[in-house]
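Before any further analysis, backbone shapes were mapped to integers, which produced the following:

***
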Amino acid sequence: MSTIVLVHGIAQEQLSADSLEAEWLPALAGGVRTAGHHELADRLWRDSRPSGLTTRMAYYGDRFTDLDAQGSGARAIDGTALDLAERLSVEWLRTAAEYAADPRDRAEATRRLLNIDGTDEGAQGPAAALRPALNALARLRWFAPFGLGLAGKFVWRAVSQVSSYLTEETVRQFAQDRVLEHIDADTRLVIGHSLGSVVAYEALHRTTGPVSFLTLGSPLGLRSIVYDRLRPAPPRVPVAVSAWTNVVDRDDLVAAHLDLEPYFPPARDSRVAPRTLPFVDNGSAPHSAVNYLTKAAVGRVIAEALN
């Protein structure tokens, strides 16, 4: 059981709980240190003595691997999930057209949206079998950090994993159970990144808390794709949540650029509502969990939850 539970996002199926903890923990401690809480930062990472603070990654990425997937390293998805994946790609293109920091991405996304019924030649890998929006999404410069040859594969993994979680009951249950196995009466903070914020949100409806909830680069407010499929319905703040802070980079295409408060009313007999902080700047990797965690604003939220 853990004081802090971390819940990872999309495209982590080749990693593990241990490797992700090794990546996230220094960043988490760094954000807390930048916020001025040096002793707490040491307790979170550098101090090898028993500190009473344990942090564990709720890892569900292995559910998205399939050794029989013809070497692709990704699971095949059914027609329902495939349709949802295409709709999600369109929504991300719309986000890029409105919010992308690079004007070339805004122009490209706008052009692609106007010609969404066309076809893209030259696409390779799993994305080639999909309709135009998914292929168009992979052409954006936003994916440059992943490398030209990997962008299409990353886009495919991202949209297929979100779609599988929302349409396959076994995937949904598996991911939530991985979160809940780390939560007990000593848990004080749950941090969900990307799809992990959706998994954590639904899992927290299955526990009593109280815990603070921190969402990073979250698509929870993405109407018709994610929001309308959340459980229980209609969406609301989980009873277990004593405080909810949402953080987003303005150039993060995965996140919904919305104030979540109007969409998640407090639980019955509670006043807790999600609070979205001003945009942070994650540089050339706007969706990076590590870049989110190193921010002083995030460090202050973590320190507040633990102190």
Remarks:
- The longest strand covers residues 241-247.
- The radius of gyration is 19 Å.
- Residues 79-99 form the longest helix (21 residues).
- Confidence is low (pLDDT under 50) at residues 67-74, 118-129.
